UniProtKB/TrEMBL annotation:
GO molecular function annotations of the record: hydrolase activity, acting on ester bonds
PANTHER family in UniProt: NON-SPECIFIC PHOSPHOLIPASE C2 (PTHR31956:SF26), NON-SPECIFIC PHOSPHOLIPASE C4-RELATED (PTHR31956)
Superkingdom of the source species: Eukaryota
This protein's name: Uncharacterized protein
GO process terms (BP): phospholipid catabolic process
Keywords: Hydrolase
Species of origin: Dioscorea zingiberensis
Length: 167
């Protein structure tokens, strides 16, 4: 039995592509705090008095990057200025959040592989914050960041090893 089409659908299918009207796309919604952050940065720039011509600072640049925390970008600056609330190297994550005796991986500045684009899905974020899909903890332990990264790392090495195997 052939599929029945509505009159409108049949008409659309008979039109050549060049004659079809294009539907305007709605602009992609921005992060709700993005506009506020831009206004705040602009307010700071405009409210800071201009330095005299002889001052050492001529330009201040505020760089905001998606998925990049202060610790990721400038955390080790604590070595230069102890007043910065940066990293010390004692920060760690367990290899497995489901195993209480799991070894821990400590924060270092000598990573050989860093996932440039960590998971953005709701499940990936929940795993990073709670360590699993169990969100019953009253305070998130914030210890699940290594699990998704280790899966990407293992997948990367398996693919590279497979590519090097003789045919």
């Amino acid at each position: 039995m052939p599929l029945k089409r509505s009159r409108a659908t049949a008409f659309i299918h008979r039109q050549p592509k060049a004659e079809m009207e294009t539907i305007p796309r709605r602009p992609k919604p921005q992060h709700p705090h993005f506009s506020l952050l831009c206004c705040y940065a602009l307010l700071i720039v405009l409210s800071v008095p201009r330095a005299s011509a002889g001052g050492p600072i001529k330009t201040v640049v505020v760089l905001v990057m998606e998925n990049r925390s202060f610790d990721h970008m400038l955390g080790w600056m604590k070595k230069l200025n102890p007043e910065i609330n940066g990293v010390t190297g004692s920060e760690s994550n367990p290899v497995s959040t489901s195993d209480p005796s799991s070894p821990r991986v400590y924060f270092k500045d000598e990573a050989h592989y860093v996932d440039p684009d960590p998971g953005h899905s709701f499940q990936a974020i929940r795993e990073q914050i709670f360590g699993s899909n169990d969100t019953s903890a009253s305070t998130p332990p914030m210890d699940g960041f290594l699990c998704p990264a280790s899966r990407v790392y293992v997948a990367q090495h398996v693919r590279q090893r497979h590519e090097r195997l003789p045919a």
